[in-house]
């Protein structure tokens, strides 16, 4: 068993608005993902967006696991839909990068944890689609973009028996919430692992792989104040050591 697995973290892209450097492209990543991996005894490895397939293959060979992070909306054209009026900003080159990361890590059966957008892109990678704006749904009765501090849970999710998440978290858990999109049609191989009280899919799992789990909430924001989220990261890191 390896002592400290190397964990790849997908990054995003920001365009600098500082007048001195306006238009400069910046690699973007919340430090909370990095700290959560350190806290769970992994070693984080930031992955800049690239269309170099050879580099992505080498990432997959070098690293022991992958975290797909949150961020921009996914381009709906990738799941054969036209853009909804409430669609947020998209970074299509990031979408393609994340999809290729998934392809290469799956080819080696290495663990993948998708967080928020990361869960959604996992689903899209397998032919699934998304609700582009859940606030437009008539049955959306829960606030999915919370006001309380990010380390506090704002609503409950119910976890399905027989899932990996149920083994880790139990029957239900309080989660934070920062999303306006969600999984609609499941991608091939995926099953629902958790739902909110209004029926929104909050977690998915693909049992065709060693560990492929997507959660709609942000466990990296809660890891220091919530043992459930620490257990989730610990379980993932342990899978990356096998």
Automatic annotation (TrEMBL):
The keyword Glycosyltransferase applies. The keyword Transit peptide does not apply. GO terms for biological process: polyamine catabolic process. Its EC number is 2.4.2.-. InterPro entries: Class_I_gatase-like, Peptidase_C26, PuuD-like. CDD domains: GATase1_2. Gene3D superfamilies: 3.40.50.880. GO terms for molecular function: gamma-glutamyl-gamma-aminobutyrate hydrolase activity; glycosyltransferase activity. GO terms for cellular component: cytosol. Keywords: Glycosyltransferase, Transferase. Pfam families: Peptidase_C26. This is Peptidase C26.
